[in-house]
Design a protein that fits this description.
This protein is an alpha+beta fold. It has helices spanning about 35-45, 50-65, 80-85, 95-105, 115-120, 125-140, 145-160; strands at about 5-15, 20-30. The protein has one domain.
Length: about 160
């Protein structure tokens, strides 16, 4: 499983010399990783409306289709633009935030923030959120990467035969 670092902080808007500025307070970094416990908590709390597996296969298909299959072997530092655009077709920002929150629960079963409090403190840019989401999702493949890769190949071959 991949462990991501999630930066959290409280943001306060203040007026300084006639200009409004954001001040970050109480900054902290927490680990995140998707676990069975985290996924189950996401279902129980109503954060998941669809299966993560179907999205994981879509991510793999998108990355493989872009000619960047080597990115699947480990933590991805930067998603290629064509992959970002493709992923945008099947996932929205609220799903990304929910998966990142579930990752925080996975690495910290006694995570002290409610989902609403988490959303107020998770202020990453969209590209960073998407990168974290993909890294967490790819981490779902678990320790047995070969078995997952074989299942992925089997499923994608079956899809191509249907066309």
């Amino acid at each position: 499983m991949m462990i991501e670092k999630i930066n959290l902080c409280e943001v306060e808007v203040v007026e300084i010399e006639g200009e409004y500025k954001q001040l970050k307070r109480n900054e902290r970094t927490v680990p995140a990783m998707l676990t069975n416990y985290a996924v189950e908590q996401g279902k129980r709390r109503g954060l998941l409306k669809t299966s993560l597996i179907s999205e994981l296969f879509a991510i793999y298909s998108s990355i493989k289709g872009s000619g960047n299959a080597d990115l699947l072997s480990g933590k991805m530092e930067e998603l290629p633009p064509e992959v970002v655009m493709d992923i945008g077709n099947f996932v929205d920002e609220s799903k990304i935030s929910a998966v990142v929150y579930m990752g925080c629960i996975g690495a910290n079963p006694k995570f002290d923030l409610s989902y609403d409090d988490f959303l107020m403190q998770y202020n990453a840019e969209l590209q960073e959120k998407l990168q974290t989401y993909v890294n967490l999702m790819v981490g779902l493949q678990g320790q047995d990467k070969n078995a997952f890769a074989q299942e992925f190949k089997r499923l994608t071959k079956a899809d191509s035969k249907k066309k």
